[in-house]
Design the sequence.
């Protein structure tokens, strides 16, 4: 197999996952753009509850990553029954955690409007979204399963369909005066349809039978991945809380910027997931030649993408600003932060090489420690700079520092593994 074919093969794996991840985040962006037409009050309420929903999804995303890592290794081992049982036990864990999450959020949700200083309509939006949380969680895990077993393109087109239908339903909801409540209902409808479809599609590749050994394998990875993600979610919660208390203008701009950041982060994450799958398969079949080729190809792709993607992010940012932030005061704030956003795009993409390989060789403990360290620095710097004349710009400087620390620590760990003489191919 020559290098060109290997590059094409990796692109065939990575690009559909990247675009599917991008399309998936567009679901939230569509909601945000439609709600932004109603006013700053509604936009702030949606932004605040999006933070809470992201925290709710943390455990499910953790299960998804753990499951994908394990089944990619099982594919490399050619143990297809293990693939079925691993995902089946992941779904069992997903449903249990989803039920617990719904109960906890429902109990504590009255405090959220006070924390974020937004209107109580935010509680209505969140309560409706809770109805579809189990369906959304099932979609997350089964989509990951389908991607890992090679159905990347199918899932990408499924997401495109979902975004189009979601946009149509959102516009209908706003046109007929249902506002933010109608947007929430539309999302629940889409999640329900997708979950039913994926349950049917996966019936021959997933076995829903509790097996303690498989359940515990998932949990072992889950616990470190959970720590990694909870560190990020907690610092994002505080990050948003700091900006929310600066005023509606700053927070309205912040909500849009976060959505743009989520766009490129989701694409980069999806691109990296494709590399992680290849690394996981190589570690499962213990193929050193394939492992080395994956690393070489990944490096080439990341280097090219690190140049192209910041340019694309800039174009997307300008388009989104012209749609959602038409007032001059909002645009002034936006342009102050935009350079930091573009630099951050480069940092994240260039660091994806190390992030993806470390996940592929199951370095979840290190990734958890890395996130805790970088999150602490992010919070400290954001709080300090928020009290300076920099204001919201200072808070976003903290966000950039966070990404720089993550890249630096990941690169150091990767080099440390090689310097120790450890056989990265067989980890």
Sequence:
């Amino acid at each position: 197999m020559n290098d060109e074919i290997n590059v094409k093969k990796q692109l065939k794996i990575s690009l559909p996952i990247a675009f599917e991840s991008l399309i998936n985040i567009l679901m939230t962006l569509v909601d945000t753009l439609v709600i932004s037409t109603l006013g700053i009050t509604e936009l702030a309420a949606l932004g605040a509850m999006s933070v809470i929903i992201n925290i709710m999804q943390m455990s499910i995303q953790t299960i998804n990553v753990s499951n994908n890592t394990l089944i990619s290794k099982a594919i490399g081992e050619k143990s297809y029954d293990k693939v079925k049982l691993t995902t089946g036990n992941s779904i069992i864990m997903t449903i249990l955690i989803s039920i617990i999450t719904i109960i906890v959020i429902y109990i504590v949700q009255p405090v959220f409007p006070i924390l974020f200083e937004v209107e109580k309509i935010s509680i209505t939006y969140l309560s409706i979204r809770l109805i579809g949380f189990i369906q959304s969680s099932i979609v997350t895990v089964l989509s990951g399963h389908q991607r890992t077993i090679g159905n990347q393109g199918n899932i990408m087109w499924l997401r495109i369909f979902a975004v189009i239908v979601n946009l149509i339903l959102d516009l209908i909801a706003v046109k007929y005066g249902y506002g933010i409540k109608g947007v929430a209902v539309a999302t629940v409808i889409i999640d329900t349809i997708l979950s039913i479809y994926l349950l049917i599609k996966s019936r021959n590749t997933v076995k829903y039978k509790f097996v303690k050994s498989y359940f515990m394998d998932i949990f072992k990875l889950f616990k470190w991945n959970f720590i990694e993600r909870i560190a990020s979610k907690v610092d994002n919660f505080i990050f948003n809380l700091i900006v929310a208390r600066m005023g509606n203008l700053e927070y309205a701009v912040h909500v849009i910027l976060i959505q743009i950041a989520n766009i490129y982060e989701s694409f980069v994450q999806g691109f990296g997931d494709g590399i992680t799958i290849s690394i996981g398969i190589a570690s499962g079949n213990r193929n050193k030649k394939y492992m080395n080729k994956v690393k070489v190809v990944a490096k080439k792709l990341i280097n090219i993408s690190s140049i192209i993607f910041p340019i694309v992010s800039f174009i997307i940012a300008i388009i989104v600003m012209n749609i959602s932030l038409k007032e001059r005061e909002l645009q002034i704030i936006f342009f102050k932060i935009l350079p930091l956003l573009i630099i951050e795009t480069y940092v994240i993409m260039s660091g994806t090489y190390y992030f993806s390989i470390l996940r592929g060789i199951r370095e979840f403990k290190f990734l958890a420690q890395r996130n805790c360290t970088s999150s602490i620095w992010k919070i400290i710097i954001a709080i300090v700079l928020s009290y300076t004349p920099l204001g919201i710009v200072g808070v976003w400087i903290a966000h950039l520092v966070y990404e720089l620390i993550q890249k630096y620590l990941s690169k150091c760990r990767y080099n440390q593994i090689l310097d120790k003489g450890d056989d990265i191919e067989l980890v």
